[in-house]
Fold:
Amino acid sequence: MEPTNTTTSRLAAFSDDLANAVESAGASVVRVEARRGNPSSGVVWSEDGSILTADHAIEREEDITVGFGDGRTLKATLVARDSGSDLALLKVDASGLTPIERGEDSDTKIGHLVLAIGRPGPAGVMASIGIVSALGGTWRTARGGQLDGYVRTDATLYPGFSGGPLVDASGRMVAVNSWTLSQGAGLAVPTGLAARVATALAGGGVKRPYLGVGTQTVALPAAVRSTLGSQQETGLMLVTVEADGPAERSGLLIGDVLLTMDDDSLHETNDLLGKLTSDRVGQSASVKFIRAGEVQEKLVTFGERT
Structure:
């Protein structure tokens, strides 16, 4: 049996390594105050003052302050925000900041030890520990965005941790945490994806196509299915159509039942949401729908949500 003192020394060294990882990453974790009484966290993204944080934590777009580990509190301006990825980019008037070290997405493996870090108050950084329990591909977020990857962890996200980093045992950021984005399911935005969103935000914002409709899944009558010559059993009824929105300008009305878009069946709302990719802004799609019992077809042009 291994001597107890050797085991203890290894545990102590491991514990020190975790503390060092928190200290290293924590130097680049900031407090973001942009909502009454509920600060959130963020990370220093560039040495010239760019701060990446959670979009849902930005309740006011003016009078935003950012608190740093050295005690400084600086005014910040909102560069751009994206609700779909729950990310926002702020800018402070500072230079020589220490950006958080970022890991490569390909280095993150299921089972890796990770630490969720936040700076929700003036007392300093907080941390919790967990593992990477899953890695995934395309997913529809709770805020309506479609992202091409996620990191799932069982590390606890305490209040104010949103916008802070999920880091590996070396203190490198592997994802950005957001309780709201995952509705408490522990889903975080991978670093590589967050970097692409940050670049888009720095350039003015992320393009998000939309049609301006609300839909409800409805069963298709047998006669319609026979006319279509398919086994499609459901379609999407338009229950709301935004005034002067893309759908209305394209000629769609409340009560129309969408069947297909570019010949792909629309069984449920997620089928339509899956068509709203960033490259569709300003593009048109052929939509088949039922109106007054007849199957019709129109070209619908996607708008851009600002």
User: Anything to note?
Assistant: The helical segments are 4-26, 179-182, 191-202, 222-228, 246-249, 269-273. Residues 211 and 246 are 5 Å apart (CA to CA).
